[in-house]
Every structure is written in C-alpha cells, then in structure tokens.
Amino acid sequence: MNPIIAYPIVVLLGYLLGTCNLALLLAKLKHVDLSAGSGNPGASNAMILMGWKAGILVGLHDIGKAALAVALARWLFPELPYAGGAAGAACILGHMFPFYRRFRGGKGFASYIGVIAILNWRYALILGAAIIALVLITDYIVAGTMATVVSFPVYQLATGHYVVGILLVMVSLIIIYKHRQNLVRIFNGTEIGLRSAHRGEHRADRGKTKSEE
Length: 213
Description:
Layout: H1 3-19, H2 22-30, H3 43-50, H4 52-76, H5 83-96, H6 109-119, H7 121-138, H8 141-158, H9 162-178, H10 180-188, H11 194-198
Helix pairs in contact: 1-4, 1-5, 3-4, 4-5, 4-6, 5-6, 5-9, 6-7, 6-8, 7-8, 8-9
C-alpha cells in the first residue's frame, strides 16, 4: 500500500485504540464520579476512587491497548518501517485527547509503557526495574514517569531510530506538560508521596495526589 495512504490509517488506528478507556466504563458501572480525586480517567485515579483491583485493571488495559496498537500496525503494514512507532504515538495521544471527552483524557504514562514494551522489550524490562527502584527511593511515581519519557526517546535517537525518537520526543513533551502540577507540588513540598497515599492520607486532600495516568 502507498505510504501516503497507509500512514494515516496507522495513525487513525492507533488513535482510536487509545481512546478506549476502561476507567470510564468501570466508573459508570460502579456509579463513581471520576471528576473526583485527581479528575483523571486513568489507573491512579481509578485506584483512588474504586480500589486497587480497578486500578490494576485500568493500568493493564492502558498498557495493553498501546502494545496492541504497535503490534497490530506492524502486522498489518510490515512494509512500513515506522508503522509501530506512529501507531504507538497516536495511541498515547488518543488516551490523552479522546475526541468524545472534548480532548480531555489521561496523562498517558501507562500507554507509553505499552509502546516501549513492543518497540524494545529488553529496554522495557531494564526500565521497569529502574522505575520501581526510583519510585521506592523518591516515593514519587512521577519520578519514574519523568525518567521514562526522557530516557526512551534519547535512547531511540542515540541508536539511530530518528523518526520514532522524534515522535516520542513530541509525545514526551506533552506528558511532561500534563505532569507540570505534580512537578510544581514536589518542588513546593506539597505532593503526597506513594507511601502517604497508601496509608490513606490522600483523603485529606485528594486534589494533591499524584495520578500518573
């Protein structure tokens, strides 16, 4: 297929997969208002408002849909060298900017992980261990988020994958922007850490919790 036709199909496929949101479905079934907590339709807020099982399910869904977008694009268009990267980037954007919610979605971190898992699973394993260690040391999930969205595009560019690297740089900048309030709260010392949130202290000020999705 002509790349001029194929790449828009790849991007549309990735975007539509990205707009699928399990958090919204679970919230509707459980009659939960996702505008509470952080207001994000993602895994962290689902965990805060609906419990850890819901949070895990949503997180796995968000990772899985991005992984599926990359794998499906590669399978459907093996002749396109950047099909996986384009579909993955589009999927993350679909999660962050769903058309049916006036382009107000999650923060994209879980879907970003899904993209990395298919593009380079070895890097994903190393990165996963590093993220866990970093979060445990700093007590902030956003620290792992920032390390991920900065390091992987740099790795892609350093290894000669320039097109995919540039795509991910653009997506990473949007993710960083969406986490700006978390970064400001960390700087001000008002961000609630993971251990504090686990103990339930987030209930005193849900607006200051650090939802990463």
